[in-house]
Amino acid sequence: MSKKILNLMAWHFHNFWGIKLNSGRIVGIVEESKESEVTDAEGLFGNLVTEFGWRVRRLVEEEDEMRNVAQVQAEAFHIPVVFFNNLFLEFFKAEVLAALLYKIRNSPPNRYACLVAEPTHSSDSDPLVHQRLVGVVDITVSTDKDVLDHLEGAEEYLYVSGIAVLNKFRRQKVATVLLKACDLLSLLWGFDYLALRAYEDDSAARKLYTNAGYRVVSGDPVWMTTWIGKKRRILMIKQSSLCVSLVK
Ligand SMILES: CC(C)(COP(=O)(O)OP(=O)(O)OC[C@H]1O[C@@H](n2cnc3c(N)ncnc32)[C@H](O)[C@@H]1OP(=O)(O)O)[C@@H](O)C(=O)NCCC(=O)NCCS
């Protein structure tokens, strides 16, 4: 394979990992008290949120399901290239799947979750019925200091990343329901804050997050964007609903 193609692949993966991995790290070991909370909430994981014709649940750790998750995220974050586009997409999908497996194997169940959205009723005439998943989101307990600086009194928070919805199902509130499920998870796991990052110029994502109650608190430093030439990202945070009602 030529050097040019390899370079293109590296650039392509970097774009995805820029979103997925810069954002915070998977931390910690299961604490006993939190482990029992997870067990208590297990029943709810069957169906975290059901609304607008979609239901959100936790990923089932089976090969087909994990491949479907990788498919949804890879399609959503893949930047088409002129040559060898399908090849790049396949490589990208494999990378996304490998990252998902890594996170599942290395994270306690109350520190990382992949949530998936599917229709509450499937139509047999729908050609996508075999690919029932229409959207996904990752949620990870994180301790990134840059984020904690904006969260009063918090030592950890939930980082929301990799939210993706299949093209055909966009603008039908799938992402909205996924974000509601993240809110619920923050209550179940006992976290006061959720945080995420978006590109400053991505007005669609920003609107989605603002509607869901997130507010912008900071942006990437100028040297990162001007000198290195990366797109500027903003940090958005949201206080968990329980925390808000306790303050009121
Ligand atoms: C961003 C994304 C997850 C939104 O998913 P979705 O299921 O279509 O979002 P929803 O239907 O829940 O949208 C809720 C609101 O967000 C805003 N919104 C979402 N997509 C929008 C778009 N393309 N243009 C303008 N506003 C948009 C709207 O206010 C929308 O409400 P409305 O449809 O009543 O106007 C989806 O477009 C996607 O997968 N994009 C590619 C991956 C990506 O960019 N992820 C975000 C990384 S930060």
UniProtKB/TrEMBL annotation:
GO BP term (any one): mitotic sister chromatid cohesion
Domain of life where this protein originates: Eukaryota
Name by which UniProt lists this protein: N-acetyltransferase domain-containing protein
InterPro entries registered for this protein in UniProt: Acyl_CoA_acyltransferase, GNAT_dom, N-term/lysine_N-AcTrnsfr
GO annotation, cellular component aspect: NatA complex
Gene3D superfamilies: 3.40.630.30
Domain N-acetyltransferase, first and last residues per copy: 102-233
GO molecular function: N-acetyltransferase activity
